[in-house]
Structure formats: structure tokens, C-alpha cells
């Protein structure tokens, strides 16, 4: 019996089943609820059609997906039209869907209500978060189709009411490209920086003309509604006509019944503003004129009571002149006194004064050194005198002498150390002042090749006119003195000036003792 059963390969049997199923169910319409909906990276969509007792695997190829007016979502009740076939790779059958439509308007409205409730639960439709529109926007952004009648109606109404700069973000307003295009327009306007090359809109209008529920379904996309709620720029929703409601209407800041009404909401009437401005300007001019007249009368009255400006300012100007003159005299007096004091101190300061101060300091240092050397002996003598006066017992006296001897030894060491430090400091100061004396002494100048000229009385001859021809003078060099008689020198008045300036001779007062 088994030998009469034909034998098939797996591929042959799968192909026979495929042909049988496609012949029996070539083209079918199936009504059901969408379960799992998955969009693959290739663009194909895999989904399940189900009812209460069965599940039918289905697929929508990429080409058919782009033609669908309403995209499938989980939970929708739809009517799918397509071909029933098998998938031999997994031994299952599936429906290849060519067309899909909602199972009546009720299914779309149920999906609309579900999305609306989700947005309301998140607070995106609350009136507290909606922003007010600017009174006079300078830039208006419009997200719509650039070729439809909507943009022409908006531009015409803006031109009649209040001309403003309009930026159009072109996008599809129907079909699969509508939601991502509208989202890109809203987010793109918000991303424009203030003060950039492209002006940032003060208000955004999302507009589309009327249509069926399927035509307007792109504005019921949840992503579009969330983009409108997240906009930082006030947004007007103008989708469809008065009876039409879409999901973006509830999350936008303002809903307009038509695109033309949106343009009227966005801007005021220019003629009304001009009339109001004229009335306010006239009232302001009248108020300013009356205020000016009152202040002019008050100023004239005050002017009559003040008297002549010369009588008010004359005494003050005179006091100022006297004070300025006194200040000038006081400053000159202080300057003269300071110059006299400076000359007096400069004359007193010389090599003799420094030498005298150095000798005085050396004598004080010698006296201090002698006192420091005799201090330990005097201290011992005083200790013995105090011991004799106290008449202490021998043992206590010895202990007292021992303690005082220790203290005396410590203090002697300290005294010697302090004396050595004092002597070293004094020697350092003496050496510094000796160097200062050497630097100020005229002998250092004589060592450099200069000479000191003195008359017969021992006074320094500072100028050539200070001695006459034939006078005897003494010339002091670094290594001694020579006598000389003055005579008339050669005439140097016509000699050329030296090529380079030679150092000036030291001033004569440097050699005064």
C-alpha cells in the first residue's frame, strides 16, 4: 500500500501547497484587529491580523506601504485586501497586503481619542502651559505646502492687515511625508538663533486646507502633537476648517478655525494701530505743551525773585580769587623755605662731619668694650658685699656662692657673646661709614687725575675769575702739593668743540671740609 503513495521532496511539496492555496484564495479581503506591527530596516512591514479565535500573519511590501493613506498601528480595526500565499522557509502561510483601510471612521476616531487621552494625562493639552501670542510680530514662520492656496491666503491677509516678514518652511501636508515634514518645520524654526543670518520667527503657523479624516490624519500623529507642545515659539494650529479637529489643535498655543483666521490672529490691523497712535500722539503733544507753559511761567516768576546773576555770583567769585592768590603765595613761601632748608643741610653734610661721627662712634665702642671687660669683676665684688652684709651661715653662704657662681658663669658667657656681637656690629657700621667717607673724600677724585687749587689763605679757588694774574696758589695732587703763580693762559674762545663730551669735573663743594 505504501509503495503506491507518490514521493515528494520537501521543495516539491511546499510548492504544491503554495500553488493550491494561491489558486483557492487568489485575492481576498480580510477584516480584523491589528496585533504586532513591525517595520523592518528594508522598508517592509510585518504584522498580525487577529480576531478572538485566530491570528493571520501578514506582510506589506515597501512599495505598497508608501501608498497607504493611513499607516497601520497596533489596536486598529482594518480591512486588508491582498493575496494569500505561503512562506516555505518557515512552513507557514501569510497574507500579502496590497491595500488597507480603517474599518469605518469609528476606528480612526477611537485611535484619535486614545492619543488625545494620553496627551491629556501628560498635561500637554493644559491651558496653563499655553503661551500668549506677541502683539506685533516682526517675523512669522509658516509650516505648510508652498504650492497650495493656503500660503497665498495667509500672505494676502497679512498684506492687508499688517505687513510682516514671512518665512515658509515647505512640507507635505498629506500622506506619509506629512508628519516628519511638519515636525522638522517646527523644530527647525525653534533652532534658529536670535540675531542670526536667518531671522527667528516670533510666532509659528502650522496650516492646511480642509479635507477628509484620512487627508488630515497626518496632523493626528502623536509626534506632531508633541513637537507643537515642545515649541518655545508661540504656535497657531490652522488645520482644516471650523468643524475639523486634529490632535495638534489641542497641544498648540492657539487654534484657528481656518488658515486665514490664523493670519488675523497673528497680527493686528495696521490702520487701527495708526489711528490709535495718532490719537495718543495728539493727547501727548497737548499734555507736553500745557506742562511746558506751566513750567515757563514758574521759571519766570522765580527769575524775578532771584535778582541779577552778577549780584549772586560776584561775592563768590571774589572769595575764590582771594583764596587762589593766597594759595599761590603760600605755595611759593613753602617752596622757598624748603629750598633754604635743603641748602643748609647740604652745606652741613661733608667729609668732615662723616669723619667726626665715625671717630665718635669708635670712641663709644672702645668705652663700651672696657665696661664689658670689667663687668664680671664688679658683679663678683657686689656678690661678696651682699654676702658679708647678710652674715649668712657658712654652709648657706657656700650654696649661695655656688648658685651665684653658676649664674655668673652663664651670664658672663651671655655677656661676652652679646659684647662680641655688639663689637662686630659696631665694626661693620664703622667699616661702612669708612667706605662712605672714602667715597665722599676729595682724595678719591685727586687719584683720578684731578687737582685742587687753593689760594694763599687756604681757600679753594672754584672759578677762573676767583684769582688774578700773578697770585700765588697751591695745587694739591694725590701725592702732594706744588706751588704755582697764575698767568694769562692761551685764548681758547675760537677752538672747536670736542667731538665727544668729557665727564664734568666734580663740584667744588665736594672738597669742602
Automatic annotation (TrEMBL):
State the name under which the record lists this protein. Answer: Exodeoxyribonuclease 7 large subunit
Gene Ontology biological process terms, A to Z: DNA catabolic process
Family indicated by similarity? Belongs to the XseA family.
Organism name = Parvularcula marina
Select a single GO molecular function from the record's annotations and give it: nucleic acid binding
Q: Which InterPro entries match?
A: Exonuc_VII_L, Exonuc_VII_lsu_C, OB-fold_nuc-bd_dom
* Any single Pfam family the record assigns to this protein: Exonuc_VII_L
Q: Which UniProt keywords apply?
A: Cytoplasm, Exonuclease, Hydrolase, Nuclease
> Which gene is this protein's source?
xseA
Amino acid at each position: 500500500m505504501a509503495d503506491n503513495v507518490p514521493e515528494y521532496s520537501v521543495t516539491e511539496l511546499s510548492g504544491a501547497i503554495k500553488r493550491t492555496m494561491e489558486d483557492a484564495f487568489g485575492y481576498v479581503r480580510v477584516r480584523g484587529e491589528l496585533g504586532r506591527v513591525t517595520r523592518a530596516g528594508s522598508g517592509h512591514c510585518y504584522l498580525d491580523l487577529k480576531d478572538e479565535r485566530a491570528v493571520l500573519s501578514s506582510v506589506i511590501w515597501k512599495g505598497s506601504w508608501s501608498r497607504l493613506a493611513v499607516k497601520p498601528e497596533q489596536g486598529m480595526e482594518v480591512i486588508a485586501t491582498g493575496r494569500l500565499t505561503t512562506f516555505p522557509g518557515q512552513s507557514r502561510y501569510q497574507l500579502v497586503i496590497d491595500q488597507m483601510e480603517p474599518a469605518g471612521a469609528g476606528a480612526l476616531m477611537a485611535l484619535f481619542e486614545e492619543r488625545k487621552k494620553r496627551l491629556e494625562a501628560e498635561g500637554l493639552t493644559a491651558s496653563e502651559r499655553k503661551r500668549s501670542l506677541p502683539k506685533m510680530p516682526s517675523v512669522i514662520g509658516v509650516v505648510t505646502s508652498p504650492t497650495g492656496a493656503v500660503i497665498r491666503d495667509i500672505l494676502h491677509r497679512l498684506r492687508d492687515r499688517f505687513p510682516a516678514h514671512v518665512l515658509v518652511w515647505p512640507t507635505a501636508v498629506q500622506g506619509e511625508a506629512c508628519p516628519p515634514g511638519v515636525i522638522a518645520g517646527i523644530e527647525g524654526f525653534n533652532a534658529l538663533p536670535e540675531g542670526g543670518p536667518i531671522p527667528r520667527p516670533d510666532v509659528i503657523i502650522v496650516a492646511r486646507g480642509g479635507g477628509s479624516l484620512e487627508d488630515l490624519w497626518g496632523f493626528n500623529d502623536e509626534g506632531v502633537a508633541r513637537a507643537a507642545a515642545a515649541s518655545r515659539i508661540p504656535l497657531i494650529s490652522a488645520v482644516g476648517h471650523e468643524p475639523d479637529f486634529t490632535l495638534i489643535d489641542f497641544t498648540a498655543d492657539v487654534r484657528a478655525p481656518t488658515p486665514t483666521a490664523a493670519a488675523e490672529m497673528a497680527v493686528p490691523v495696521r490702520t487701527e494701530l495708526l489711528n490709535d497712535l495718532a490719537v495718543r500722539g495728539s493727547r501727548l503733544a497737548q499734555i507736553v505743551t500745557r506742562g511746558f507753559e506751566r513750567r515757563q511761567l514758574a521759571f519766570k516768576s522765580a527769575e524775578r525773585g532771584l535778582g541779577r546773576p552778577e549780584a549772586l555770583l560776584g561775592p563768590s567769585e571774589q572769595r575764590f580769587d582771594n583764596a587762589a592768590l593766597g594759595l599761590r603765595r603760600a605755595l611759593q613761601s613753602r617752596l622757598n623755605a624748603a629750598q633754604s632748608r635743603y641748602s643748609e643741610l647740604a652745606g652741613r653734610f661733608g667729609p668732615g662731619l662723616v669723619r667726626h661721627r665715625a671717630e665718635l662712634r669708635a670712641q663709644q665702642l672702645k668705652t663700651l668694650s672696657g665696661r664689658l671687660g670689667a663687668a664680671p669683676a664688679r658683679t663678683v665684688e657686689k656678690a661678696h658685699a651682699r654676702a658679708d652684709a647678710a652674715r649668712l651661715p657658712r654652709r648657706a653662704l657656700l650654696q649661695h656662692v655656688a648658685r651665684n657662681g653658676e649664674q655668673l658663669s652663664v651670664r658672663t658667657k651671655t655677656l661676652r657673646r652679646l659684647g662680641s656681637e655688639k663689637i662686630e656690629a659696631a665694626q661693620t657700621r664703622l667699616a661702612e661709614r669708612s667706605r662712605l667717607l672714602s667715597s665722599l673724600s676729595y682724595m678719591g677724585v685727586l687719584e683720578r687725575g684731578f687737582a685742587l687749587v687753593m689760594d694763599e689763605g687756604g681757600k679753594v679757588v672754584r672759578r677762573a675769575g676767583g684769582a688774578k694774574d700773578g697770585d700765588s696758589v697751591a695745587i694739591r695732587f694725590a701725592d702732594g702739593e706744588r706751588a704755582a703763580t697764575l698767568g694769562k693762559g692761551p685764548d681758547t674762545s675760537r677752538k672747536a668743540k670736542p667731538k665727544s663730551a668729557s665727564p664734568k669735573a666734580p663740584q667744588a663743594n665736594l672738597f669742602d671740609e
